Amino acid sequence: MQNGTLLAAVDLGSNSFRLEIGRYDRGQINRSEYLKETVRQGNGLDADRNLTPQAMQRGWDCLARFGERLAGFKKHQVRAVATQTMREARNRDEFLVKAHKILGFPIDVIPGREEARLIYQGVAHMLPQSDERRLVIDIGGRSTEMIIGKDMTALQMESYRVGSVAWSMKYFPDGQFSVRAFRASEVAAKAVLDEAVNRYQKGSWDVAYGASGTIGAVGDVLSANGWPPGIVSQAGLDWLLDRLVKAQSADRLKIDGMKDDRRAVIGGGISVLRAVFDLLGIDQMHAAQGALRHGVLYDLIDREQTETDLRSTSVARLASRFDVDAEQAGRVSTVAKQLFLKLADPARTPEAHRWLRKLQWAGQLHEIGSQISHSDYHKHGAYILDNADAPGFAQPEMHRLSLLVLGHRGKLRKLDAQLDDAAFVMQLLCLRIAVILCHARRAPDMQGFSLTLAADNTKAFALSCETPWADAYPQSMHLLREEALAWQKTPWSLNLAVQ
After folding, report:
1. What pTM, to 2 d.p., does this model score?
2. Is residue 401 part of a domain?
3. What is the pLDDT of residues 26-84, one digit of tens each?
4. Cβ-contact 48, 30 below 8 angstroms
5. Is residue 494 part of a domain?
6. Residue 418 sits in a domain of what CATH number?
7. 344 Cβ partners below 8 Å, 6+ apart?
């Protein structure tokens, strides 16, 4: 990546939406601009876990303002991620389709553990290099992430469904504070977080850090009232709880350092934070500068290079875990790459190298379901990928891989909804042909064989081979003829010619 390149991260949190723009400079990112809006989508989920129209509109309005600021940015310069509220919302697709159009960039709903990993990356990049074992806590609107890591590596990650917005709605619905309400809220938080005790016990980390959200707000209040700056202590939490109880309500709370947009969710946030302190035996926590959005920015840099892209490591781990035939996976991946480069030139199409990398991952994983079923392994493989925990991947990315694995064999009708996407169609066609050519589980002869886009029709492909090739590989020719017939039932066509 060139020095001076602008990068942007959009964080669609449950309480706030944030836009961080930074300039890349020799491996570091220096802030250029930061925007934050309190959207509170987390309290816009109804009893059926659907986002209300009002909550969706608040989100769209914010993203329209962010989108105006991002005008002129290229796709590879921006990544938008959504967290727990979107993970929960049953009607999230309705929101995300429009949100994509408004923002101008796709929005990835990331799994909880991936959110935790990115939070740690953001925190670690803003701290000095050290051998200390770090416990990082991030209390968001509807989830709390816990990570243990060392230097730049997250070693233990988890996300729990407890947060400041959710707990404030449930235990302080009218903004009323009482000792009884705080006691009930803390007990409920401990019930959710109890399983973290053994995994994050005090002897497994050296220093505790708190990222963003609740912990940052608490740190600001304590500092403004004479407590050591950048430190949240048990004594400080006790003092702050006493102030909240004496105020009796969020509206009557008057305390230096408390921002207006934090008052409505401070009750739930304090309850969860006190539960974390008590369960994990924390005496004090340092307020960290880094957060999810910073981790997303640094992840954008890593994704640009295959050797630093964590997703490649995750693919290799999945293949190993499910005992994929590595030689066959390598053959299919290599042939698919050769075919794809005939259709999309990365030099002319900036996105082509990203499409190619995902195609190769699909080739590496196309037989991931074979240990479950021989005849339906493509269906089981798709299910595995849709439900796998793969660090570095967002849910939409894993779903796209699952669709390629599902579609690498069999009828194409099951993928009708995806066949409007030209990039997906090219990936799918190359993968299917590669599987055909490698059906004998040996490297195929590619001499005299070519695949091109038809010159007169953007939805047609031309597949040609020389007569000696066709005579030498009759089974391959039979399978290719069947493939051409399969594509006739779609909006696309595959024209097979023997010359």
Report:
1. 0.86
2. yes
3. 889 999 999 999 998 988 999 999 999 999 999 999 999 999 999 999 999 999 999 99
4. no
5. no
6. 1.10.3210.10
7. 352, 355, 356, 423, 426
